[in-house]
C-alpha cells in the first residue's frame, strides 16, 4: 500500500459556526466509530449503487471517521470537508489504511472554500440532517461541481405524516438534535434536493430497521448538474 499524504486546511471564519462541544464532539466521534459496522450493514447495498463508478478525485462533505472510504476507487484522492476535529484522527488513520490521499478541510459544508466548477463528484451520507442550512449546502455543492458532475447522497429523512415513526420523530426531535450535534430527524431532505436546481435528480426511498426509530426512514439518490 502506498503512503498516503494528509493535509489540513483550516479557515477560522468557516469553522466558528460549528460548536466544538466538550462532550458531544468526542461522544459523536466515539459513537460513530463504534456504530459504523452496524450502520454500514444496513446501508451497504444502497451505497454500492449510489457510489458505483466514482471518479478518482472526490469531495465528501461530513466524512466523519471514514465510513465511505470503502467505496472510493483504488488510488483515490479525497477532499474531506469535516468541521468536527474530534473525527480527524480516525479519518486520517482510515485514509492511510485504504491508500487514499486525503486533503482534510476543517470547514462547514456551507463554505467549502473550493473553487467554482472544480469537482466531478461530491458525496455525502447522513450529513444533510445535521447541517445548519441544507439549501445553502446544496447550493455550495452545485457551485463546486463541474457541468455533468454528480452529487451522490444517502440521508435519513422525515417520515410520512400520520405514521408511528413520524410521531416518535416529533417527540424526540429536541433530545435527538442535542445529542447528535444539531441532527434533525424531521427534515424533508428529498424536497430540499429537488428544489436545489440540479439538472436531474433520481431518488429512491427505503427503510432500515434499527432500535433508533427516528432514524429508520431514508432516501438515496444521484443529482446531476
From TrEMBL:
<dbReference type="Pfam" id="PF08241">
    <property type="entry name" value="Methyltransf_11"/>
</dbReference>
<dbReference type="GO" id="GO:0032259">
    <property type="term" value="P:methylation"/>
</dbReference>
<dbReference type="InterPro" id="IPR013216">
    <property type="entry name" value="Methyltransf_11"/>
</dbReference>
<dbReference type="GO" id="GO:0008168">
    <property type="term" value="F:methyltransferase activity"/>
</dbReference>
<feature type="domain" description="Methyltransferase type 11">
    <location>
        <begin position="59"/>
        <end position="152"/>
    </location>
</feature>
<keyword id="KW-0808">Transferase</keyword>
<dbReference type="InterPro" id="IPR029063">
    <property type="entry name" value="SAM-dependent_MTases_sf"/>
</dbReference>
<dbReference type="InterPro" id="IPR052356">
    <property type="entry name" value="Thiol_S-MT"/>
</dbReference>
<protein>
    <submittedName>
        <fullName>Class I SAM-dependent methyltransferase</fullName>
    </submittedName>
</protein>
<keyword id="KW-0489">Methyltransferase</keyword>
Amino acid at each position: 500500500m502506498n503512503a498516503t499524504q494528509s493535509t489540513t486546511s483550516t479557515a477560522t471564519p468557516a469553522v466558528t459556526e460549528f460548536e466544538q462541544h466538550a462532550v458531544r464532539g468526542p461522544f459523536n466521534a466515539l459513537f460513530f466509530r463504534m456504530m459504523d459496522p452496524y450502520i454500514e450493514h444496513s446501508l451497504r447495498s444502497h451505497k454500492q449503487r449510489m457510489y458505483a463508478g466514482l471518479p478518482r478525485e472526490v469531495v465528501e462533505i461530513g466524512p466523519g471517521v471514514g465510513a465511505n472510504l470503502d467505496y472510493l476507487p483504488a488510488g483515490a484522492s479525497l477532499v474531506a470537508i469535516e468541521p468536527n476535529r474530534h473525527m480527524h484522527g480516525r479519518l486520517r488513520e482510515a485514509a492511510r489504511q485504504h491508500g487514499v490521499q486525503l486533503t482534510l478541510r476543517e470547514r462547514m459544508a456551507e463554505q467549502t472554500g473550493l473553487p467554482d466548477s472544480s469537482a466531478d463528484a461530491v458525496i455525502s451520507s447522513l450529513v444533510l440532517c445535521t447541517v445548519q442550512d441544507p439549501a445553502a449546502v446544496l447550493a455550495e455543492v452545485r457551485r463546486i461541481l463541474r457541468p455533468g458532475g454528480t452529487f451522490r447522497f444517502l440521508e435519513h429523512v422525515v417520515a410520512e405524516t400520520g405514521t408511528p415513526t413520524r410521531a416518535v420523530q416529533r417527540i424526540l426531535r429536541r433530545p435527538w438534535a442535542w445529542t447528535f450535534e444539531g441532527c434533525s430527524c424531521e427534515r424533508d431532505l428529498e424536497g430540499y434536493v429537488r428544489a436545489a436546481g440540479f439538472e436531474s435528480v433520481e431518488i429512491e426511498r427505503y427503510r432500515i430497521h434499527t432500535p433508533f426509530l427516528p432514524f429508520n426512514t431514508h432516501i438515496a439518490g444521484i443529482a446531476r448538474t
